[in-house]
Amino acid sequence: MEKNTVCSAASASSPRFKRILLKLSGESLMGEQRYGIDEHRLADYAQQIKDIHDMGVQIGIVIGGGNIFRGLSGAGKGFDRVKGDQMGMCATVINSLGLSSALGAIGVPSRVFTAIRMEPIGEFYSKWKAIEALERGEVAIMSGGTGNPYFTTDTGSSLRGIEIEADVMLKGTRVDGVYTADPEKDPTATKFTDISFDEIYNRGLKVMDLTATTMCKENDLPIYVFNMDIYGNLARVMAGEPIGTLVHK
Questions:
Q1: Domain contains 1
Q2: What is the mean pLDDT of residues 114-120?
Q3: What's the pLDDT score for residue 79?
């Protein structure tokens, strides 16, 4: 399907959610590369975000940093865990700046917030400033995780989604939903259309880390898992097409 066809089809009806927290994988930004940022994947993500921004959706974004540095894996290679996590936080800032630049190139206003003071690279994060940016029509890109070591960007995205009072967290991955097992390893794995947080726990499924999942459950923030790497899927989610898995109470 043509890109403009996807956009116009999704725009034909009002979006499913008014305010979202979009969690993007740092690894996905690598595209076909082994490291860093693939400019084509970045441009693809930016255009998908523009498509739903044009629908009037308020968009908060948290991006991982695994394409540059992952603190936990760094600790396994001899890095001090706290310093490793701080390096990972800086990696998320780099990715956030890249996405902000790509959005600006196609006319989408955005603002980069950082969980630790880093002016003039980004504005120090607060809930109120982020919500003000969303209500002005800016995409709020929230980097640096929670600003603390020992917390993943999954937890950071849960926290930010709750703080900005998002209707849903959209977890954009390279898998099209939640399965009974890893579909890349088990060909018999079957996909859920929707699943409860309790069933996630009981089955031991890895949707997000336990802290992040528990925060979403306790604060009634549903998670929608979908494949962001297929162009148009973000708009399809907003149009209500059942292409992923909804995790809910």
A1: no
A2: 96
A3: 78
